[in-house]
């Protein structure tokens, strides 16, 4: 089975800090995604990547950036964390674009104080 | 634009049957997926309908009507472990768009 591993389950950061959320997948998937999940808003796509060093904006990219230096690793960066970025962050991967099946990590619950 | 509508909450009794509906508006439709997410857990893929009709996988079935832009997830013989959120989703050329999710409450 594909495994998607997010490095932290819980994080607490201060406003203005630079925050790195890490995601690693072990099945050589081409595509990786970052979503945030908030009550009543569902899963919203922040950024995705279909190849090393390639990135595409999702629906809510403001305040975030990403890095994909290696195929297996996709990092989400909060350049200057704000309280409205307190959320659950979910990483996902898939073998190809247009697939109906993603494999998700267990999520990182980030609290910005 | 693309949107999916599903009820925010549904309540059913253990052992019963429940249906979670999803209507969608998309440009370029390939099919409808369903995901399950338990509290604190990762969303996990349940099913995918590319064609009209009913697909059955054990206690879970999923239905699609492309002409009505409508689908549903049917859960039979409900068990307490089915308490979770269920998301309908549509894949596009480069990503999946998710609905906001339906929280399923199961009463003993």
Description:
The complex is a heterodimer of chains A (113) and B (108). With 113 residues, chain A is mainly β. Chain A is 0% helix and 53% strand. Chain A has no helices and eleven strands. Chain A is globular and about 35 Å long. Chain B is mostly beta strands and 108 residues long. Chain B is globular. The N and C termini of chain B lie far apart (41 Å). The relative contact order of chain B is 0.35. At the A-B interface, strand 5 and strand 10 of A face strand 5 and strand 9 of B.
Describe, in short, the structure shown:
The complex is a heterodimer of chains A (113) and B (108). Chain A has no helices and eleven strands.
Distance between the termini of chain B: 41 Å
- What about the largest sheet of chain B? 6 strands, mixed
Give me the Rg of chain A, rounded.
Answer: 13 Å
- Which parts of chain A are unreliable, with pLDDT below 50 for 5 consecutive residues or more? none
Mean pLDDT of chain B: 93
Structural class designation of chain B = mainly beta
Helix content of chain A: under 10%
Percent in helix of chain B? under 10%
What is the N-to-C order of secondary-structure elements of chain A (H for helix, E for strand)?
EEEEEEEEEEE
Low-confidence stretches of chain B: none
- In whole angstroms, the N-to-C terminal distance of chain A is 37 Å
Structural class of chain A: mainly beta
Question: Globular, elongated, flat, extended or rod-shaped: what is the shape of chain B?
Answer: globular
Query: Beta-strand percentage of chain B?
Result: over 45%
Query: How many β-strand runs of chain A?
Result: 11
- Any idea what the radius of gyration of chain B is? 13 Å
- Choose one word for the global shape of chain A: globular
Oligomeric state: heterodimer
**Strand content range of chain A:** over 45%
Please tag this protein with its features.
heterodimer; A: 113 residues; mainly beta; 7-stranded mixed sheet; globular; B: 108 residues; 6-stranded mixed sheet; 5-stranded antiparallel sheet; 11 strands; 0% helix
């Amino acid at each position: 089975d594909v495994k998607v591993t997010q490095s932290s389950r819980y994080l607490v950061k201060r406003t203005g800090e630079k925050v790195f959320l890490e995601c690693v997948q072990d099945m050589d998937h081409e595509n990786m995604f970052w979503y945030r999940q908030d009550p009543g808003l569902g899963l919203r796509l922040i950024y995705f990547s279909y190849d090393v060093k390639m990135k595409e904006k999702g629906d809510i990219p403001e305040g975030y950036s990403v890095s994909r230096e290696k195929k297996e690793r996709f990092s989400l960066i909060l350049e200057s964390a704000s309280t409205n970025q307190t959320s659950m962050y979910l990483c996902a991967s898939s073998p190809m674009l247009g697939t109906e099946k993603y494999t998700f990590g267990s999520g990182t619950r980030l609290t910005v104080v | 634009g693309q949107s999916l509508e599903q009820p925010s909450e549904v309540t059913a009794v253990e052992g019963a049957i429940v249906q979670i509906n999803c209507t969608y508006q998309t440009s370029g439709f390939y099919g409808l997926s369903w995901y399950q997410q338990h509290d604190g857990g990762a969303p996990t893929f349940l099913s995918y309908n590319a064609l009209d009709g009913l697909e059955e996988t054990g206690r879970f079935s999923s239905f699609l009507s492309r002409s009505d832009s409508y689908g549903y997830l049917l859960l039979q013989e409900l068990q307490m472990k089915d308490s979770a959120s269920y998301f309908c989703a549509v894949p596009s050329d480069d990503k999946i768009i998710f609905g906001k999710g339906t929280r399923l409450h199961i009463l003993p």
